[in-house]
Amino acid sequence: MELQLSHINKREIYRYLGYRGQIPDEAVSQMIEEVLCELLRVIQPRNLYQCYECRIHNDEIRLLNEAQEGTIAFRSQKLADNLAQCDRVILFAATLGIEADKLLQRYEIMNMAKASVLQACGAACMEAYCNLVQEQIREQYYTEGYYLRPRFSPGYGDLALEAQKLIFECLQCSKRLGLTLTDSLLMFPTKSVTAFIGITENKQGCHIAKCSTCENIGCEFRYED
């Protein structure tokens, strides 16, 4: 799936750069455009996902897949709330690839302002790519009468980053996507994401933006529309 300029939410880039509710001046806007176009030329987005049966008891989420023995357990009240209406859940992983990090390293040597802009553009590209993939998944399950819940990633709310280890193991992220997990449980390439996506028979109004269900109304990255 090719990520194009039209897929990117520029307002999201502005928020990452601290321009909440504002538009940067012409010089910064031009730099954003240049960096974004260069980033889109070099990245190679990839993804993988696996569907599991889901059972929830209090704050424990247990996943079962017939192809794998036993169950996989996660603990998070926020994730349990997100998946409360779901009997299946998708484990999801995606990355923009190593070229985004290589470009960042070059910018950090040559132009720190561009490096800062690239971080914001990379985050916006990652979000846009995940949204595109999730929309494809939504269409697949919609034909079967199912709807998707918003993505929920390790490190969000009370879901510990340790959940990354189990997701990596289940999806074989290192082998299949070339991702590695550092000792501090961060991913490399850095512009990568893992997440849970709930599947439910109950109609959902929004399967991508999480803001409508998030209690952190003061978050600087909260969608305003």
Number of strands: 8
Structural class: alpha+beta
The strands making up the biggest β-sheet line up spatially as: 3-2-1-4-8-5
Q: Low-confidence spans: pLDDT under 50, at least 5 residues?
A: none
CATH class: Alpha Beta
If you average the pLDDT, what whole number results? Answer: 90
Provide a descriptive summary of the structure in words.
The protein contains seven helices and eight strands, in the order H-H-E-E-E-H-E-H-H-E-H-H-E-E-E. It has about 220 residues and is α+β, with helices and mostly antiparallel strands. It has one domain: NADH Oxidase (3-Layer(aba) Sandwich). The strands form two sheets. The protein has a six-stranded antiparallel beta sheet with strand order 3-2-1-4-8-5, with helices on both faces. A two-stranded antiparallel sheet has the order 6-7. The protein starts with 9 loop residues before the first helix and ends in a 25-residue tail after the last strand. The mean pLDDT is about 90.
